Amino acid sequence: MRSKRLGHHRVASTVAPFAAVVALLLTACSSPPVPSASSAASPTAPTPPAAAATLSPSRLAEGAEVLIIGDSFTEGYGIAPGTDWAHLVADDRGWQATIDGVSGTGFTQGLAADGRTGLDYANRVRRHAEAGGAYDLVILQGGLNDLLVPAATERANVAATVQAARTAWPDADVIVFGPTAPFGGGGNRDESGAIRATATEAGAVYIDPAAPSPWLDQANSPDFDLGDRLHLNDAGQAYLAARFVDAVLASVE
Question: Core-most of 39, 104, 144, 159, by most CB within 10 Å?
Answer without folding.
Answer: 104
